[in-house]
Amino acid sequence: MIQQVLFIVVTIVAFGWAIKQFGRIRSNIKLGAPETISGDTGTRWKNVLLVAFGQQKMFAQWKPALLHFFIYSAFLLTQVELIEILIDGFTGQHRMFAPLLGGFYTFVISFIEILSLLALIATVVFILRRTIFKRDRFNKPEMKGWPSKDGLLILAGEVVLIAAIFTMNGTDILLQELDPEHFPDTGNLAVSSILGPALFGSLSQNTLVILERVGWWLHLLTVYAFLNYLPISKHLHIALAFPNAYFSRLRPRGEMENMPDIMNEVKSMMGLIEEEEPPEGEELPEFGAKDVFDLSWKTLLDAYSCTECGRCTAACPANLTGKKLSPRKVMMDIRDRLEVVSTTRASQSAEQKAAPYDDGKSLFDSITPEELHACTACQACVEACPVLINPLEPILAMRRYEVLTESSGPSDWIPMFNSIENSGAVWQVGDARDAWTKD
Amino acid sequence: MNVPLLADVAAEGKSIDILFWVGCAGSFDARAQKVTKAFARILNHVGVNYAILGEEELCTGDPARRAGNEFVFQMTALQNVETLNGYGVKKIVTACPHCFNTLKNEYPALGGSYEVIHHTQLLQELINTGKLKLKGGGTFKGKRITYHDSCYLGRVNRIYEAPRKVLEALDVELVEMKRCKSKGLCCGAGGAQMFKEDEPGNKRINAERVDEALNTGAKTIAANCPFCLTMLTDGVTAKGKEDTVEVYDLSELIADSLPPGQE
Ligand code: SF4
Ligand code: SF4
Fold first, then answer.
1. 3-state secondary structure chain A
2. pTM above 0.95, yes or no
3. Do A190 and A268 reside in the same domain of the chain?
4. Closest partner residue to A433 among B57, B105, B207, by Cβ?
């Protein structure tokens, strides 16, 4: 009875807090500039199914992909077990599905156990890759501090979760013999029927009962902790990878977003359309992106979906040759800036909230021109990203801000701009364009 | 060399099947001009009904746009769209993947929709349909060649097969670099890098790519883009290998294997 009350309180708090957190993320994403994502819904669902659910792009590197898949599928399937835990918790029963489902129950739980074992192996390998083998892409400057702790913390959480599952199931197997009335028969479980007697065989019934409860609660609490940890972690991708795949842009990869305002202004300069008088006293418009508000909401969703895996950076020709640019850092900086903006916003008075946000900072405080200028627009990052993030989009949007709004940017580019404008070629040349036909 | 101008063709009241978009590099860069001429020779040899715009062609605006200068992009691009629409151009072939991408993917939003193909696609088509027959035992037969995917033909527009089929027709021994096709490494010129100094780093991107190409043991590097051509050639020179390793555009390899005929 006490357990039931405790369970209900903990569950309400855990879900209530999580809903609030996710709501905050959602409204942060909506701070971005509007962008209509158009295109065929069928293709979108295909992306969700293949890329998010099926992790198609992960398999470009099959070894980490397989290990990641174990953890991912174990995690998904553990949620099936969680349904029973939730119902048991509310009603005060124990393993209510076991007698109802019989052999099928044995199969499902055994399946989860095997996956959990594989996930445990994968988790250990992942921890080693990050700590002992120090894979290059996990040791870039942007991973110092919190991001690498974040990665390890979740792997540690995974170990706790799996340990909890095996404690819970292992002790249960023994208790089924000792107290069949309270512990319904689950059949032979693939892992626990061996592991349980081996680990806990010598313990008294009382200790077993306590251990079983410890395992059960630990399982539940780890899941709740995880749920509430997601919104402040790169692990948010397990939720956001799905909408991110759905809203992934379907326009041709090579098409930079058109800027209709500028197009129409040039058209009217060329006399192609009627000139529109700019309204009196209007401020000069700003073009490109200076802060998170100027980036499309889709780019902000991208930033929250980033897994910090660094596949983009590992493929980036600029980063590979020692330049400061790292597409992963760009995505992380956008997310961090968005977090700062939203926390500051939350502490502001109603009056301040009504005005446009200004804390004297912008994205340019973390993403420097040197980084932006190193990009070759090669799209290796876009190709590499397992969750369909486009790091090139914000890089080019920020270049637009530099050049169009601030009239800055690399001075080397100015002759190229002038030359295109004045002579229609990237270089200032005296020859006729068809001079090559003459010899 | 006899290369028809679209203005002349139109003045005679005739029409063309395809416009050859030469691009800035192909028009003015001494090395890329050779590619342009090689490709024009092939077109003449096969008897393709084509023309160029000559002085009426302007930069497509790709480098300006990727540098962030939308004004300059729109100015040059909208004029091109006017010209192309004015002539009623339907189909375009170009030897530059940047022109290719911009014409194909970016001009539609500006009111210019055309069927755009890259010269390697046209070459493949001409070979496939038997219109272009190569003389057996060309200079490159059996030679070890590695092929560099340009970003804007390869990864961005996902054209990996056409250029490789063209190489197949030449009967060469194609050796792939480790980073090829969708994983191909940039030559370092894209995103308007061609027009500026590198940012501080510890290696030039073209040096990284040339190292990889040389590791295949190939003495010929095939490319499909005038900017890659410059970058890779510079990289080979920086290694002091300019006497033993050569960088060619695919159309140059084909032009070399043309049987004798009218040009
Ligand atoms: S597009 Fe830019 S950021 Fe992305 S991989 Fe290429 S150079 Fe790096
Ligand atoms: S942007 Fe994509 S590839 Fe890059 S770190 Fe994030 S999830 Fe990984």
1. CHHHHHHHHHHHHHHHHHHHHHHHHHHHHCCCECCCCCCCHHHHHHHHHHHHHCCHHHHHCHHHHHHHHHHHHHHHHHHHHHHHHHHHHHHCCCCCHHHHHCHHHHHHHHHHHHHHHHHHHHHHHHHHHHHCCCCHHHCCHHHCCHHHHHHHHHHHHHHHHHHHHHHHHHHHHHHHHHCCCCCCCCCCCCCHHHHHHHHHCCCCHHHHHHHHHHHHHHHHHHHHHHHHHHHHCHHHHHHHHHHHHHCCCCCCCCCCCCCHHHHHHHHHHCCCCCCCCCCCCCCCCCCCCCCHHHCEHHHHHHHHHCCCCCHHHHHCHHHHCCCCCCHHHHHHHHHHHHHHHHHHHHCCCHHHHHCCCCCCCCHHHCCCHHHHHCCCCCCHHHHHCCCCCCCHHHHHHHHHHHHHHCCCCCCCHHHHHHHHHHHCCCCCCCCCCCHHHCC
2. no
3. no
4. B57
